[in-house]
Amino acid sequence: MFKFRNRSLIALRNGRLDFCTAPSVIPIVESVIETQIRQTYLNLFNRVEESSKFHFLRLNPKFYVSALVNCRNLTQVRQVHCQASVHGMLQNLIVANKLVYFYSYYRALDDAYGLFDGMCVRDSVSWSVMVGGFAKVGDYMNCFGTFRELIRCGARPDNYTLPFVIRACRDLKNLQMGRLIHHIVYKFGLDLDHFVCAALVDMYGKCREIEDARFLFDKMPERDLVTWTVMIGGYAECGNAIESLVLFDKMREEGVVPDKVAMVTVVFACAKLGAMHKARTIDDYIQRKKFQLDVILGTAMIDMYAKCGCVESAREIFDRMEEKNVISWSAMIAAYGYHGQGRKALDLFPMMLRSGILPNKITLVSLLYACSHAGLVEEGLRFFSSMWEDYSVRADVKHYTCVVDLLGRAGRLDEALKLIESMTVERDEGLWGAFLGACRTHKDVVLAEKAATSLLELQPQNPGHYVLLSNIYANAGRWEDVAKIRDLMSQRRLKKIPGWTWIEVDNKSHQFSVGDTTHPRSKEIYEMLKSLSNKLELVGYVPDTNFVLHDVDEELKIGILYTHSEKLAIAFGLIATPEHTPIRIIKNLRVCGDCHTFCKLVSAITGRVIIVRDANRFHHFKEGACSCGDYW
């Protein structure tokens, strides 16, 4: 009952009077009316079943379909099923298909398949509902089994059934099955169907077969926004963020207007690339088109700016967001963490708690990571020990990995090993990798061999692990062991990942390798490098040849250090960018200790800020100091 009194309303709910304003009572009214309509319809259904006067309705398929549409739960679906069975309406394909659909909708797949299996006649809708039902609940074996049954019985798959099976291949990353389904698509002449092609592009992209995805994408007669978004995301996930952003520009040129989902994908691609000018362009586009900075888009932009080297811009986005969830807070904490600003990360945590948001596993990984990279050992250990008691979060292998890294960086290797040995969760390659890295830093060959043995058991095909152990042996002067590791790599046909450094100048990315002479301005670069070396010698710089892990004489070691890719990129930045502007470079491997010292001194003698993103974190060099505090 509702009564208006000077714009206020009295709502009677469950025998209790509530006073509400007019706007707030509208949802209550709608809910009551909807419930009454549904109840009236179901009461009518029951009256029809009880009365012989309505026999003509009991034989009308539309009556059962309408009853199913108005069902609110599985019990009501079963009631309709029972009545349809009693009155022989299960022989009606429309009714039977609708029942299978609603059983699948309520995730009662046993009921759905039981009915489906007993159907004398099935059409394309029957098959697509059953295949899709299994796919939606993640029962991929039955999804494939039902599809196989469809093919074997001579039925023709259509553009409703095939996308379900293709998405199952995508979710399982089962490329072999995906290619088999692709052959079936060709066989039935559906290779140019828009829905099927879009699903195949998505599947190949997720399986990292990006060339196959692009081949299909280019063949499509029409491409909608979803297909463009899938292709852009596929390139980003496969490590080709540059092509992602090229496709984004091409999409707009063809008149396809991106939505928020597409923009999140583009932002993700830009974060992978780490190009600041692209980040600014995308941010400008988002503001110009007035996209709302909601939780999903805002969080993606925080991550984008942080990975492009500007944690201040990431914080500006964070502060602009009207609504934040635990992922938004975690992303901002993580951003401070890998920029070496551990204290700011810890300061943000109580603000999050005061806002009423409790941390989850990701938040605590971000906090522990921030403590690890800022040398905040005791703070990190306190968070780790209080996770369950204070926040009801059980530690998993990622939390243990952060603590092993925390202790390892601080030189407390024995404690780190004891923690690993006492773990009740399964150890993974990330955990042993963190411990092996700490052993390298502190030159503990015995523990390094123990870590490497476990690591190579888990990932025998990862060349990085062999290289790391080889480097540890080289630092210890154990050249015979270095040779054994290199022979083992040769036997297993593994190659060391080459080091590359990228720098962005005039909206273009330039790439350098060690000793690179292929750049058009190579002569100027080496002249600048020579000038820098002379100035650095005057302030006491001595190349640290411990970072040349080859059994060669000192002079040759100095020559190798001199042309490291980071140094070439910085020299190019100095001659190609305006004075007083930051130099931003990206390294695909961990920056070496000698290059770290070089960057600090160059920032002092040139007055330039140098921002380095390596495989682990960001380093901000300014006036002869690094944001990591030489703790990395």
Please provide a written account of the structure.
With 632 residues, this protein is an alpha+beta fold. The chain has 32 helices and 9 strands. Helix 8 (140-152) packs across helix 9. The termini are far apart. 38% of the residues are buried.
SSE map:
Blueprint: E1 2-5, E2 8-13, E3 16-21, H1 22-50, H2 55-58, H3 61-69, H4 74-86, H5 93-105, H6 109-117, H7 124-136, H8 140-152, H9 161-172, H10 175-187, H11 194-206, H12 210-219, H13 225-237, H14 241-253, H15 260-273, H16 276-288, H17 295-307, H18 311-320, H19 326-338, H20 342-354, H21 361-374, H22 377-391, H23 397-409, H24 413-422, H25 429-441, H26 445-458, H27 463-475, H28 479-491, E4 500-505, E5 508-513, H29 522-538, H30 554-562, H31 565-576, E6 583-587, H32 593-606, E7 610-613, E8 618-622, E9 625-626
Parallel strand pairs: 6-7
Antiparallel strand pairs: 1-2, 2-3, 4-5, 4-6, 7-8, 8-9
Helix pairs in contact: 3-5, 4-5, 5-6, 5-7, 6-7, 7-8, 7-9, 8-9, 9-10, 9-11, 10-11, 11-12, 11-13, 12-13, 13-14, 13-15, 14-15, 15-16, 15-17, 17-18, 17-19, 18-19, 19-20, 19-21, 20-21, 21-22, 21-23, 22-23, 23-24, 23-25, 24-25, 25-26, 25-27, 26-27, 27-28, 29-31
